[in-house]
Amino acid sequence: MKIVCLYGSPRSEGNSAAMANRFLEKAESLGAYIKTYSLNKLDLKGCQACRACKDKQDRCILKDDLSEVLEDVRDTDVLVMATPVYFGDITAQMKMFMDRTYSFFVPDFLTSPKPSRLEPGKKLVFIQSQAQENESLFADLFLKYGLFFEILGFNDNHLIRACGVTEPEDAGKNEKLLKLAEETAQKVMR
After folding, report:
1. Number of domains forming the structure of the chain
2. What domain range is 176 assigned to?
3. pLDDT tens digits, residue range 37-68?
4. pLDDT tens across 127-164, in order?
5. Nearest Cα residue to 96 out of 132, 139, 64
6. What's the CA angle centered on 81, arms 78 and 86, to 5 degrees?
7. What SS3 state is found at 185?
């Protein structure tokens, strides 16, 4: 099983990364092939709304570091998106990736019975960390972004979420969160 993990945080050793790393360690021990990308280290652009992916070809025409990421996502079995909450949403780095997944939609996606160019049956693991302790705040992020990935063919979707993690190392010290990451890896690898 191939897993592509996208780190959306500028902190390479922050809370979302700690949970993602524990998930990946467990998945790899169960036989997964892992490929990771730190979006903050890539030279990437957001969607240009050029619609070339709808009119000229079946891929995003932008040529930057995100081109390889999109190709790997196209071929993966499991996508892991790890992001902290910044100003009530996913990071800007993760949002640029999200916007570029528009290229995975077929030209008539609004009316097509098969709106995605991706093969169905993929899995999504959404990892979210937030300093806010109130679990009702920002609970909509997984629902909102998960919906788009369901349309793209990710039908087995999982959330690993840490609330109230204010210091970069908090999640890495929380055995309950790390256990959830391992248990999620076991479910995904079945």
Report:
1. 1
2. 2-188
3. 999 999 999 999 999 999 999 999 999 999 99
4. 999 999 999 999 999 999 999 999 999 999 999 999 99
5. 64
6. 170
7. helix
Q: Which of 127, 93, 102 is nearest to 21 (CA)?
A: 127
The CATH number given to whatever domain includes residue 11 is 3.40.50.360
CB–CB of 36/24 below 8 Å?
A: yes
How crowded is residue 69: how many other Cβ atoms within 10 Å of its Cβ?
Answer: 19
Spatial contact of 175 and 22, defined as CB atoms under 8 Å apart? no
Tokens of 161: 């979420």
User: Which helix (H) or strand (E) segment is 38 a member of?
Assistant: strand 33-38
Q: Which two tokens stand for residue 82?
A: 């790890």
d(CA 1, CA 6): 16
